[in-house]
Design goal:
The chain is globular, with a radius of gyration of 21 Å. The chain contains 15 helices and no strands. The chain is an all-alpha fold and 320 residues long. The protein has one domain.
Length: 320
Amino acid sequence: MIDASSPSLDPGSLERELGAALSHADAVAETVVPILRHVLSNEDNSLFADEIVARIRGMVRHLAVQLLDRLETAPDGGFPGEHAAGQVAQLSDHLLENDALVRHVHALALEFQLAERLHARFGGDPVLTPLLQAQIASSDPDLAALAMRFLAAQARHGQSQRRMKLPLLELPGDHLHHAILAMQAMETGASSEAAEAAAQGVRRDYDEAATRLGLASLLLARMGADATEALRIDHAGIALFATALELGSDLDRDSAIIATHESQAVRFALALRSAGARVETVRDQCLALHPDLEFPEQFDAIGPDRAAALLASGSSLDGF
């Protein structure tokens, strides 16, 4: 994060070092989507793990197939047939032109990879986490019901990720909108009326509050002040942790996932602190992810408000 071996830093010096580290993290972050798009287009996996690249390709292809299914069934409500490989590839390429969507599927791939890594390291059930167990056992029936719905959604998500798939109706609303636009821009021989009917059908079937990410937000909101318990990744699991970090800081959820990478450790620590996590909790979460990280002893001089200001002074990761 910063040079922990340097002499004790005064608060001003610490902030300057954190600012420099955040600038470096920004520089790294800004290169990821352009490089990732190149990798996905050119079969060159050298800069990204094969598993991540394969999972992203699989999810984007699955989205393309589902959109083509919608386009084919829109006129008569029949069952879709097999799609030409060229059509699937063309629509996949259209989807990959949207930076935000690429960033989202990349974050989902990283989230699944991190969940598997944490499970291997700490054990326990990666779906039914201690925090989720406690909410399912809550005396509040609405909270318990929400927790059960999220548990089911998280289990389905894990199954989809193992198959390298992503259900279309699980996309956040803005990404779904861009996916629909990509479908409508396709030259498939379908009429504009069929494309519009397909788009209307997708929108009619969509309920963002019922998605995995929507349920996570509703669950944490229902927990009230207890939602801060989700800022412990080993207790909450990465899915609820990332949503809690989004709700408590200025990071969007995809940025919260990406901030778990070692190159983004300063952003991760500042986001946790700005979300109200105690310094000891911030340190524990950083070391849970990166055991060899040199965490600065002087970090307790950074309060939540100052951490938020430092975060705001850096890149918002728009376009990452």
